[in-house]
Specification:
about 20 residues; mainly alpha; Aldolase_TIM; PdxS/SNZ
Length: about 20
Amino acid sequence: VKVGLSEMLKGGVIMDVMSSEQ
């Protein structure tokens, strides 16, 4: 569960960075 949550958070951060750059 922790691994899945960390992956989701990591993916969310990456998406936030990508959207911020655009």
